[in-house]
Amino acid sequence: xxxxxxxxxNEAYRPSLESYYLPEAQAQxxxxxxQAVTQLGPAETGILIVHNTYPVGFFQLETENRFPNYSAxxxxxxxxxxxxxxxxxGKGYAGDALCSLPAFAGKWFPELNEIVLGVNIRxxxxxxxxxxxxxxxxxxxLMGPMGVQYIYSLPLK
Length: 157
What we know:
Oligomer: single chain
Order of helices and strands: EHHHEEEHEHEE
Largest sheet: 7 strands, mixed
Radius of gyration: 14 Å
Strand order of the largest sheet: 1-2-3-4-5-7-6
CATH architecture: 3-Layer(aba) Sandwich
Number of strands: 7
Low-confidence stretches: none
Helix content: 10-25%
CATH topology: Aminopeptidase
Number of domains: 1
Number of helices: 5
């Protein structure tokens, strides 16, 4: 595993996120970190994927189950807006971050026992990374803003 850490978003990282870029083919499925953190709701946490001291990725975790189409489990968290900086892709950071998620969630969100997410049916590279990290296809499908999404689940406990 690479030297990565998952950290709750902190404004000290804002300057290094200002240059965060994704090509349109990827940006259509997510939001850039600075866009996402300005729209966080009360039960949403921005999570940085940090290599050494540099943020190489980001995702958001919603911890209050207001997403019954994803899971009926009241102790599930919803992972969304996952991305890795384009210049850092292909280095294993996404997989390492997802494999670190159970320990991170256990420390910061001990009430959770499952992480769920939606991944676009056309986003095959993301599907591969999620499955490799232990997420399973639940068989449920949702219509998302960019088309059909597979619903994946990762048990935590």
